[in-house]
């Protein structure tokens, strides 16, 4: 397994990461715990070192799963988790709004450390930007956690360009997590150029389009009510049927172009170019959820 450094930081991860959310949350019923522990450890055996979770996944159960699975190999892996929500007080799945107040961030960090069975969080993301809390306060709080040894690196998820710049000025942002795949390429216009400028790594999530790009799904595929794809407009039967036709046509056209998979240069270490000769943009490590 090849390794990558996220942006200009010293955080080195496997070129392919494993997003663990779907093991406990959002993609139907939670999976069997022992089977998922075996899966995570099999991933480690195959060279995966980058694992992603969050307190909201479950809630809590996914962090507990990841912590138990990785405890025997903690010194060999990088664990990313996230803060930023007010969870339902009864412990049920979901949340009641955003919350990135400094006291909440510190509370989440301590609780996540316990569930992950570790003494440091390698990469601590703000899960969603909280408009009620200045991003400078968020970055400053994570900076304090880094200085105290509880966190190693600061990350953002789904943040705008202005927010990224303001946060980065207070505490260097190691990575931005953003959806990016062959059917969702919006980051190419502004996000990726900004990250390249600032030396921030990008961790694309859903590189396989939440399952759509695997070819195992069509307009007749049914989702259970606890599968979050059942609520997404792009996963309606009509949208899936239209996207299937579009996908086939794009693949047909691109199969005629040489050089669709190439090595790239520059500070962003990964690299599949989704548009072949049509784009010079490059990618940072993929997360697999």
Q: Taking all residues together, what is the mean pLDDT?
A: 88
- What is the annotated CATH architecture? Alpha-Beta Barrel
* Low-pLDDT residue spans: 259-284
Residues in helices, as a percent range: 25-40%
State the strand order across the main sheet. 11-10-9-8-5-4-3-12
Description:
The protein is an alpha/beta fold. It has one domain: NADP-dependent oxidoreductase domain (TIM Barrel), CATH 3.20.20.100. It is 30% helix and 18% strand. The chain is built from seven helices and twelve strands. The chain has helices at residues 33-45, 61-70, 102-116, 135-147, 161-170, 191-198, 237-254; strands at 3-5, 12-14, 16-19, 50-52, 78-83, 85-87, 95-98, 121-126, 151-157, 173-179, 201-205, 286-287. The strands form three sheets. An eight-stranded parallel β-sheet has the order 11-10-9-8-5-4-3-12, covered by helices on one side. A two-stranded antiparallel ribbon has the order 1-2. Strands 6-7 form a two-stranded antiparallel ribbon. α1 (33-45) crosses α2, α3 (102-116) packs across α4 and α4 runs parallel beside α5 (161-170). The longest helix has 18 residues, at 237-254. The protein is globular. It starts with a strand and ends with a strand. Mean pLDDT is 88; it is low at 259-284.
């Amino acid at each position: 397994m090849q390794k990558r450094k996220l942006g200009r930081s010293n955080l080195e991860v496997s070129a392919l990461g494993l997003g663990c959310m779907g093991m406990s949350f959002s993609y139907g019923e939670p999976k069997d715990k022992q089977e998922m522990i075996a899966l995570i450890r099999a991933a480690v055996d195959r060279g995966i070192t980058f694992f992603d979770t969050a307190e909201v996944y479950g809630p809590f159960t996914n962090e507990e799963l990841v912590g138990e699975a990785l405890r025997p190999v903690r010194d060999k892996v990088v664990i990313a988790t996230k803060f930023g929500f007010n969870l339902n007080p009864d412990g049920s799945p979901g949340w009641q709004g955003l919350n990135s107040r400094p006291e909440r961030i510190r509370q989440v960090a301590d609780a996540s450390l316990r569930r992950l069975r570790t003494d440091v969080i390698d990469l601590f993301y703000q899960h969603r930007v909280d408009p009620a809390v200045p991003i400078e306060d968020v970055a400053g709080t994570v900076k304090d956690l880094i200085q105290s040894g509880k966190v190693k690196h600061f990350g953002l998820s789904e943040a705008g360009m202005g927010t990224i710049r303001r946060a980065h000025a207070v505490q260097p942002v190691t990575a931005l997590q953003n959806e990016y795949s062959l059917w969702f390429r919006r980051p190419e216009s502004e996000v990726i150029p900004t990250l390249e400028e600032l030396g921030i790594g990008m961790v694309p999530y859903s590189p396989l389009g939440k399952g759509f790009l695997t070819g195992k799904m069509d307009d007749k595929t049914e989702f259970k009510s606890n599968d979050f794809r059942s609520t997404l407009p792009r996963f309606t039967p009509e949208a899936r049927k239209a996207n299937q036709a579009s996908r086939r046509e794009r693949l047909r056209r691109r199969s005629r172009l040489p050089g669709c998979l190439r090595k790239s240069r520059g500070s962003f270490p990964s690299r599949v170019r989704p548009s072949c000769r049509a784009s010079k943009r490059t990618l940072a490590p993929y997360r697999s959820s």
